UniProtKB/TrEMBL annotation, chain A:
GO terms for molecular function: ATP binding; ATP hydrolysis activity. It comes from Lactobacillus corticis. This is Nitrate/sulfonate/bicarbonate ABC transporter ATP-binding protein. Keywords: ATP-binding, Nucleotide-binding, Transport. Residues 4-226 form the ABC transporter domain. InterPro entries: AAA+_ATPase, ABC_SmlMolc_Importer, ABC_transporter-like_ATP-bd, ABC_transporter-like_CS, P-loop_NTPase. The lineage of its organism: Bacteria, Bacillati, Bacillota, Bacilli, Lactobacillales. PANTHER family: SPERMIDINE/PUTRESCINE IMPORT ATP-BINDING PROTEIN POTA, SPERMIDINE_PUTRESCINE IMPORT ATP-BINDING PROTEIN POTA.
Automatic annotation (TrEMBL), chain B:
This is Nitrate/sulfonate/bicarbonate ABC transporter permease protein. Keywords: Cell membrane, Membrane, Transmembrane, Transmembrane helix, Transport. PROSITE patterns: ABC_TM1. GO terms for biological process: alkanesulfonate transmembrane transport. It holds the Pfam family BPD_transp_1. It comes from Lactobacillus corticis. Its main location: membrane. Belongs to the binding-protein-dependent transport system permease family. It is found in: Cell membrane.
Length: 239, 260
């Protein structure tokens, strides 16, 4: 059974149709990457699933429940970390709820993202990569079923980015959380996701699968390179 | 380390000390002779005499009392109104333009009205100071709240913070730097308003001391009053600064990183 199900979803901003009659299914534990040109509606799709936006028509369901307000079983990680600068790292995870179990959970997550030593630092004293780690830990605080990643690595340098990719893959597979990643970077998509969907012409133009994701052999690498090419040509193809 | 503490602690005092020393010398050696320029030592003597008579303490404390009451009442009201305007659309639509209109009226223009309604007693002076503190606090609180990063608000919404959390975690701390700027500004207008109020009509306070001295051509007391005002002004600056260091620790941590 699908965890998330969109059926005939359309979304307009003013006169501009961003998504038209989109239907899709995402199963539990999937890692889906959404790729496509800038302005293609990737963020919009994610915001619809998070409940931050409402669809004009069609239905969006998670576990067969229609998403009408903020989706409490999904958490979004934004391109900019959106940490509260006036709060320390651990406070950013707690949102003022200082119950013992919240603190315990926060510490466990900070440990997992490798920042337990920074729990009392302010965000301004962290690097961009460290801040995104905090944002990742914060997104996991409510132990959501779905993690929505809107280009969270876009602003990072190549090395930090690779590190973060590995961290996200590790965390997601450990918790078996369902993940939707929006990215411009097709290579990143192939590295991280087991399904790659191309968003184009107000909908999902192509669904690619990436069965060799965790396979590092030369042969698998070649297949992944081919997948990158296929995805790129699909995005750039004008028809 | 010693060099930087010297720079931080001592350097700002250097110029005032030099000026006062020069002033003292100039009067004592009769480089300048004027009945309007007493030597600093004479001003200090006047202060000691007035202190012994108890006049000085009494006037300073009554002025401080008026200033504090006016600030608490006016600043508090400005803060609350700003809070309401910043957070409630309905309130903003109803009250903001009216408050903005009232704000453009110069404070001094209100003196006759305040005196007429409240007389010349304490309530009138406190009311006058309160009016002067209300608007800066209102503007800054309102502005602080409405200029919070909408991305952070959206984050709060998508992380399902409730109204109290939203206010305590995002809105209030986000607006605090601007609110504290309002406090600093209001402390400034507080003294100005107090001086005006005490000069226009009063029988006590530093402003009264000064106007009274003017009538008796008591230049030393006038200087003394000016110096007291300067000290009180410095005191409120000091308070404002400390509030900022206490409440805006996060900004300092960021700044010290970029400085060092
Ligand atoms: N709040 C909004 N109001 C009006 N138009 C919007 C709004 N949000 C998005 N749009 C428009 O919808 C279209 C799709 O935007 P969206 O952010 O989903 O694209 P995207 O695929 O995420 O692009 P990018 O890769 O640049 O982030 C864009 O043309 C954008 O201008
Ligand atoms: Mg986007």
């Amino acid at each position: 059974m699908a965890l998330i199900e969109l059926d005939g979803v359309s979304k307009k901003y003013g006169d501009k149709t961003v998504l038209k009659n989109v239907s899709l299914k995402i199963s539990e534990g999937d890692f889906v990457a959404l790729c496509g040109m800038s302005g293609g509606g990737k963020s919009t799709l994610l915001r619809l699933i998070s409940g931050l936006e409402k669809a004009d028509s069609g239905s969006i369901k998670q576990e067969n429940k229609e998403i009408s307000t903020i989706n409490s079983d999904a958490r979004m990680m934004f391109q900019d970390d959106r940490l509260l600068p006036w709060q320390t790292v651990i406070q950013n995870l707690l949102f003022g709820d200082k119950s013992e179990e919240r603190i315990k959970l926060a510490k466990r997550l900070l440990d997992r993202v490798g920042l337990i030593d920074y729990q009392n630092s302010f965000p301004a004293s962290l690097s961009g990569g460290q801040r995104q780690r905090v944002a990742l830990a914060r997104a996991l605080m409510s132990q959501p079923k779905v993690l929505l990643l809107d280009e969270p690595l876009g602003a990072l340098d190549a090395l930090t980015r690779r590190n973060m990719q590995d961290l996200i893959i590790k965390v997601c597979s450990e918790t078996n959380i369902t993940t939707i990643l929006v990215t411009h970077d097709v290579q990143e998509a192939v590295r991280m996701a087991d399904k790659i969907w191309i968003i184009k012409n107000q909908g999902i133009a192509k669904e690619l699968t990436n069965p060799e994701r965790n396979n590092q052999t030369a042969e698998a690498q070649l297949k992944k390179d081919q997948l990158v090419e296929t995805a790129l040509s699909c995005i750039l193809d004008n028809n | 380390m010693t060099k930087s503490t010297f720079k931080k602690k001592f350097l700002p005092w250097l110029l005032p000390i030099v000026i006062i020393l020069f002033w003292q010398l100039a009067v004592q050696l009769k480089w300048i002779q004027s009945e309007f320029l007493p030597a600093p030592t004479e001003v200090v003597q006047t202060a000691i005499v007035d202190w012994k008579k108890g006049i000085l303490q009494k006037n300073i404390s009554i002025s401080l009392f008026r200033a504090t009451c006016g600030f608490v009442i006016g600043g508090g009201m400005g803060f609350i109104l700003g809070l309401l305007s910043g957070t409630s659309k309905l309130f903003r639509k109803t009250f903001d333009s009216t408050i903005q209109m009232l704000r453009t009226i110069p404070n001094m223009a209100l003196i006759p009205l305040v005196v007429l309604i409240l007389g010349i007693g304490e309530p009138a002076k406190i009311c006058f100071v309160a009016l002067a503190c209300l608007f800066p606090m209102y503007i800054n609180t309102y502005h602080g709240i409405t200029s919070i990063d909408p991305d952070l608000l959206e984050m709060g919404k998508s992380y399902q913070l409730n109204t109290v959390q939203m206010f305590k975690q995002i809105i209030f701390p986000g607006a605090l730097p601007t609110i504290l700027m309002g406090v600093r500004y209001a402390l400034g207008t507080m003294w100005t308003a107090l001086i005006v109020a005490e000069t226009v009509s009063a029988d006590s306070g530093i402003g009264y001391m000064s106007t009274n001295a003017q009538q008796y051509v008591d230049v030393k007391t006038i200087y003394l009053c000016i110096i007291i005002y300067a000290f009180l002004g410095e005191l409120s600056n000091y308070i404002a600064k400390n509030l900022e260091t206490i409440f805006l620790e996060w900004r300092n941590s960021a700044r010290s990183l970029t400085e060092e």
